[in-house]
Design a protein that fits this description.
The complex is a heterodimer of chains A (about 240) and B (about 300). Chain A is of the alpha/beta class and about 240 residues long. In chain A, about 35% of the residues lie in helices and about 25% in strands. The two termini of chain A are about 35 Å apart. Classes of the chains: A alpha/beta (about 240), B mainly alpha (about 300).
Chain lengths: ~240, ~300
C-alpha cells in the first residue's frame, strides 16, 4: 500500500454559526494535491459555507483550518490567495465594467501565488475567452462569466481551487469540456474541491466525496459507495427510501 | 508607459498651461481661481468615487479642514503660506484617517455618514468655545499672507499633483485594482488585492488634494467664515461636475467643470433669475439620459476615453 499522500488542506471540527443557526457544526475533512474532492449534500447542508470559511470570507467560530500545515482559519482572503487558495462563485462575480483581459490581469498582478510564468493569452484561449478579451465582463453570457471566474482564479496559480457549482447551467457539451479541463488541472497537481448538485458530473470527475448534512460530514468515500449507505440516501431522498 | 505620457501631454499639460496663462489675458482672477479649485475637487471626487465607488457627500469636510489648518498655522504660528498649505493637506489626511471606519459602510450609508462627519467638523470649528483657536463662528482674517498671485500659482501646482494622481490611477495596475474593488470587493480580495489598504490609500489621496485645495483657497481669499469653507455647495458641485463629465476617466471631471461651472457663471451673470431652473433641468436631463456622464456618449460606442 502506498504511503498516505501529503495533506494540502485539513479542516477539523469547524463550526460556523449565524445567530443561533449552526451552518457548520464540527465539519472535518482533508484534501491532497492532485485530488478532486466532491462536496455534496442537500440544500442548506453547509457546502457553500464550508467554501466561504476556507476562502476567508468567514472566520470559523471553532475548529481549525490548516493549509500546507499552517493554521489559516480566519486569515484575510487576499493572504490566502497568496498562499495558493482560490475559488469561483456560485453566482459568478466578475468585475463587470472591466474588460475580460483586465479582470484576469488584476488577479495575475496582485494574486500570483507562484513564481512560475503564466502565459495569459494561452489561458484565455484555452477557456474560449480570447475572442471576447477586450469586451467588458458585463457583455458576457452567464457561462462565459463562470469560465471567467475560473480563469481569474487560475491566473493566481493556486494550489487549491474551490469550485462552487461551476457546472450548474452548463449544457452537456460544455459540461464534458469543463470536466476534462478540471481533470487536466488536477493532473498538474492542483487540489480541487467541487461543490455540485449534478451527481453525474460529480461521478465523472471526483476521486472521493464528502457527503454533508446539517453542517457535518456524514460520509467519506467514493460516490458509488455513498449511494449504498442508508444514512446518505435518507438525507437526499427522505426516510422511506432508506430501507 | 507610453499611455501615461500621452495622457500627460494631451490632457494634463495643456490644461495646466492654459490655466497658468489665462490670468494675464482675463481679468476676473477670482473666477479663474474658482475653476482651478473645482478642477481639483472634481478630480478628488473622481479618485474616491470614480475609482472606488464611495460617493462622498461630505467631501467639503476635507476642504474646510485644509482651510482651517492653513488659518491656524498662519494665525498662531506665523507660518509662511506655502508651509501652511501643506499643513492644510496634512490636516485633511489626518481627518481622513480618523474617518477610515466609514469605509466599512456601503452606498448611501457611507454618503450619509460622510455628510454627518463634515457637519461635525464644521460645528467643531465654528464652536464659540474654541474661539481662541479657530475664531469660532466669527471667521478668520489672514491679512499677513494675502497674496492672490502666489496663491493662484499654488493652486496650479496642486492641480498638477491631482492630475498626476488621476493619470497614474487611470494607467496603473493599482488603479485597475481599485476599480476591481469598486466592482466587487470580495472578488477583488480573491484576486489577491488587499481591499482595505487600497480603499484607504485612495480615500487619503482624495482627502489630501481637497485639504491642499482648502489651504490654497484660504490663502487666496484670506477672509472667511466656517460656513464659507464648509459650504455643502463645494461637495455638491464637485460631485455633480465629476458625474456630469464621467468618472473613472481623466477628462470626464475636467469636461464637467468646464461645461457646468462655465454655464453656472454664464447664466449667473446674464440671467440669474433663470439660473436655478436651467441648472436643475440640465442636471435632471443628465441623470435621465446620461447616467454615466458625457464621456459615455463615446464609451458606449466602444471608443476609449482617457
Amino acid at each position: 500500500m502506498s504511503p498516505e499522500p501529503e495533506r494540502l488542506l485539513e479542516v477539523s471540527g469547524v463550526v460556523k454559526r449565524f445567530g443561533g443557526f449552526h451552518a457548520l457544526d464540527g465539519l472535518s475533512f482533508h484534501v491532497s494535491p492532485g485530488e478532486i474532492l466532491g462536496l455534496v449534500g442537500p440544500n442548506g447542508s453547509g457546502k457553500t459555507t464550508a467554501i466561504n470559511v476556507i476562502s476567508g470570507l468567514y472566520a470559523p467560530d471553532a475548529g481549525s483550518v490548516s493549509f500546507l500545515r499552517s493554521p489559516v482559519g480566519g486569515m484575510a482572503s487576499h493572504k490566502l490567495v497568496h498562499l495558493g487558495i482560490n475559488r469561483t462563485f456560485q453566482v459568478p462575480k466578475p468585475f463587470m465594467s472591466l474588460t475580460v483581459k483586465q479582470n484576469v490581469e488584476v488577479a495575475h498582478t496582485y494574486g500570483n501565488a507562484s513564481d512560475k510564468a503564466l502565459p495569459m493569452a494561452d489561458l484565455l484561449e484555452r477557456f474560449h475567452l480570447a475572442e471576447v478579451a477586450n469586451r467588458p465582463a458585463s457583455d458576457l453570457t452567464n457561462v462565459q462569466q463562470k469560465t471567467l471566474d475560473l480563469v481569474r482564479a487560475l491566473a493566481t496559480q493556486p494550489k487549491l481551487l474551490l469550485l462552487d457549482e461551476l457546472a450548474a447551467g452548463l449544457n452537456p457539451t460544455e459540461l464534458d469540456w469543463i470536466a476534462g479541463e478540471i481533470k487536466t488541472l488536477a493532473q498538474s497537481g492542483l487540489a480541487i474541491i467541487v461543490v455540485e448538485h449534478l451527481m453525474g458530473f460529480i461521478e465523472q470527475i471526483t476521486d472521493r466525496v464528502i457527503v454533508m448534512n446539517a453542517g457535518k460530514e456524514i460520509f467519506e468515500g467514493t460516490l458509488a459507495v455513498a449511494v449504498t449507505v442508508p444514512e446518505v440516501v435518507e438525507v437526499f431522498l427522505g426516510g422511506e427510501h432508506a430501507a | 508607459m507610453p499611455d501615461t505620457l500621452r495622457h500627460y501631454l494631451i490632457i494634463a499639460v495643456p490644461l495646466l498651461i492654459v490655466m497658468a496663462v489665462l490670468p494675464s489675458v482675463y481679468s476676473n482672477h477670482l473666477l479663474l481661481f474658482n475653476f482651478v479649485i473645482f478642477f481639483i475637487l472634481a478630480q478628488g471626487v473622481n479618485i474616491i468615487y470614480g475609482f472606488t465607488g464611495y460617493l462622498p457627500f461630505g467631501y467639503v469636510g476635507f476642504f474646510g479642514a485644509g482651510a482651517y489648518g492653513f488659518a491656524i498655522m498662519v494665525m498662531h504660528l506665523n507660518a509662511p503660506a506655502p508651509l501652511a498649505v501643506l499643513v492644510g493637506g496634512a490636516v485633511a489626511v489626518v481627518l481622513g484617517l480618523i474617518l477610515t471606519p466609514l469605509l466599512r459602510l456601503a452606498g448611501a450609508y457611507f454618503s450619509i455618514a460622510n455628510l454627518a462627519a463634515a457637519l461635525a467638523v464644521l460645528h467643531l470649528v465654528a464652536n464659540p468655545a474654541l474661539e481662541q483657536i479657530t475664531k469660532g463662528p466669527y471667521g478668520v482674517a489672514l491679512n499677513g499672507t494675502f497674496n492672490p498671485t502666489m496663491a493662484y500659482a499654488g493652486g496650479i501646482l496642486i492641480l498638477a499633483l491631482t492630475l498626476g494622481i488621476v493619470v497614474y490611477l487611470k494607467n496603473s495596475s493599482f488603479g485597475l485594482a481599485l476599480q476591481a474593488v469598486r466592482e466587487d470587493s470580495f472578488s477583488a480580495s480573491m484576486s489577491g488585492v488587499n481591499v482595505v489598504k487600497m480603499r484607504t490609500v485612495a480615500w487619503l489621496a482624495s482627502a489630501l488634494v481637497a485639504g491642499l485645495a482648502g489651504g490654497v483657497f484660504a490663502w487666496y481669499v484670506s477672509v472667511f467664515y466656517p460656513d464659507n469653507v464648509f459650504s455643502a455647495d463645494f461637495s455638491i458641485f464637485a460631485i455633480v461636475f465629476a458625474l456630469f463629465g464621467g468618472v473613472a476617466t481623466i477628462s470626464g471631471p475636467l469636461i464637467g467643470v468646464i461645461i457646468l461651472y462655465g454655464i453656472y457663471n454664464l447664466i449667473g451673470f446674464t440671467t440669474p433669475q433663470y439660473f436655478q431652473l436651467i441648472y436643475g433641468l440640465l442636471i435632471m436631463a443628465l441623470v435621465l439620459f446620461l447616467p454615466a456622464g458625457l464621456v459615455s456618449l463615446a464609451t458606449r460606442r466602444g471608443w476609449y476615453v482617457p
